[in-house]
Amino acid sequence: MSGVSTELETLLGTRWKKPPLIKLSWLRWLLILGGAVYLVLAIASVEVNWSRVYEGLDRGGAFIMSFTRPDFLSRGGDIWNGLVESVVITVAASVVGILISIPIGLGAARNIAPLPVYLVCRAIVAVSRALQEIIVAILLVAIFGFGPLAGFLTLSFATIGFLSKLLAEDIEAMDRVQAEAIRATGARWTQWINYGVQPQVMPRLIGLSMYRLDINFRESAILGLVGAGGIGATLNTAFDRYEFDTAAAILLVIIGIVMALEYLSGVIRARVR
Amino acid sequence: MPVREIAGAKVWRRRTTGEAMLRWVGWLIGVAIFVWCWQQISASTTWFFVWDAPRIAGDIIDRATPPRWSYMEKLWWPIWDTINIATLGTLIALVLAVPVAFLAARNTTPSTWIIRPVALFIIVASRSINSLIWALLLIAIIGPGVFAGILAIAIRSVGFCAKLLYEAIEEIDETQVEAITATGASRWQVMVYGIVPQIMPAFAGISVFRWDINIRESTVLGLVGAGGIGLQLSGSLNTLAWPQVSLILLVILLAVVISEWVSAKVRGAII
């Protein structure tokens, strides 16, 4: 007890201070100092052409104003075609991506797959996650030529990495008891997966699929920048020609669809839970 | 329990006949939509190029190996730029995201009817548009360069950070806030002593997580002219300098792996 009372006595009369986020004081000061040095160097190395920025403010204002009067009509045909292509790519890539990522997700779960299968599937997931969509799209456009096929393959590939990893993590975290009960009835491997594993991970799989559909649509909007189809090409042209009214219209359409998809996925996720 | 009689014996079924039919129709519609989408893609594809693809891919790999290592000396500066775009962009985004998050969280927003929907709209608008598109827009407005890249990353990250942060704020322990309020603290003091300490770990985690994503995104911003290593990538692609392209892709891959490792380590230390 004497230890406590002396600690209390030393604290008496001193002001209380908030405990810092990082406890080690030398590490805290090192981080603060390093951060400050880095910030000075970084900001000094960024060249900003302020006169150019100042000139651009008018255009920035014009762009923001154009959101109040978006022009859906004068390039209506282009917007519609681009949009349909984006949606088509999104749907097809999501379906194919999900179908392929289910077996890979099963293979990447350590508790149901043998080690060689596990390693192969994890390698596929790692490769798919490390390469960004836009770089994959550039390479695929170079290989397959311009058009939505490259975009479709890009998004399918990206979906596999995302979905397989999360599905595998979910399978690894499942309740073993239920799966074992099914196995005890003498079920085959496929029956075991179908009745023991699938019901446990299905709600999350549906939720993740909806989320990925949402991501795929957002990504499909930029694939057009490198020639892989979708609404990105229309948007790029609109910016290049300073047709901000049309660009604003396209951006509003994208935001609207993303919001609708988010709402839809919220409803579906709430229902399957 | 749905049961079906087959030859006098009762056999357990997973679904009733009606349910099974409904599912069947649903699947049919789904498959029909997929087939239609595939036809659309197929119609606008030049299949001759696709059948030729293995040869082209082999050709590209042939040209791209070995990477031109001597090009590395021209890449150090773009790499530094790329890191700056990601880091400064993340910092600006965090500064902007904190007030937005406090306005969007149900328990700290000053008005649920007016300010909260505005804050939520800012979050959705920022999140639904890719940083490449933000970069395109900013380049049209303030000209190409690193600055446009930083702003593009910042605008894109505000929504992400604010969303995760306001969810963290909504999950705080209200009893601590009440304890601080009971001491007679002002609104700001409640925020500093009651709310901030609780969301600090989440805040640090979100920052590092977003920084990791931003390193990824900033490597390709140069494709549209917003500075960083992507500028070299698009230049090399346009001149068909495949050995340079393969070197740049290797550098990008390495940067992504390192940043993911750093972010995982830091988040592991915080949580």
UniProtKB/TrEMBL annotation, chain A:
Indicate whether Cell membrane appears among the record's keywords.
Answer: yes
Q: How does it sit in the membrane?
A: Multi-pass membrane protein
Q: Which GO terms describe its molecular function?
A: ABC-type phosphonate transporter activity
- Span-the-membrane segments of this chain are 26-46, 87-107, 245-264
Keyword Metal-binding among record annotations: no
Question: Which positions carry the signal peptide feature in this UniProt record?
Answer: none
The protein's superkingdom reads Bacteria
Instruction: Kindly give the InterPro entries that the UniProt entry links to this protein.
Output: MetI-like, MetI-like_sf, PhnE/PtxC
Keyword set, alphabetical order: Cell membrane, Membrane, Transmembrane, Transmembrane helix, Transport
| Span of domain ABC transmembrane type-1 | 83-265
- One Pfam family here: BPD_transp_1
Q: Which GO terms describe its cellular component?
A: plasma membrane
The protein's location, in the record's own words, is:
Cell membrane
Question: Where's it mainly located?
Answer: membrane
* Membership in a protein family: Belongs to the binding-protein-dependent transport system permease family.
The name under which this protein is listed is Phosphonate ABC transporter, permease protein PhnE
Native organism: Seohaeicola zhoushanensis
The organism's lineage is: Bacteria, Pseudomonadati, Pseudomonadota, Alphaproteobacteria, Rhodobacterales
Automatic annotation (TrEMBL), chain B:
Q: Which CDD domains match?
A: TM_PBP2
Cellular localisation? Cell membrane
Question: Boundaries of each ABC transmembrane type-1 domain copy?
Answer: 79-263
Gene Ontology terms, cellular component aspect?
plasma membrane
Q: Which Pfam families match?
A: BPD_transp_1 (PF00528)
Q: How does it sit in the membrane?
A: Multi-pass membrane protein
Regarding protein family, the annotation reads: Belongs to the binding-protein-dependent transport system permease family.
Protein name, UniProt field? Phosphonate ABC transporter, permease protein PhnE
Give the source species: Seohaeicola zhoushanensis
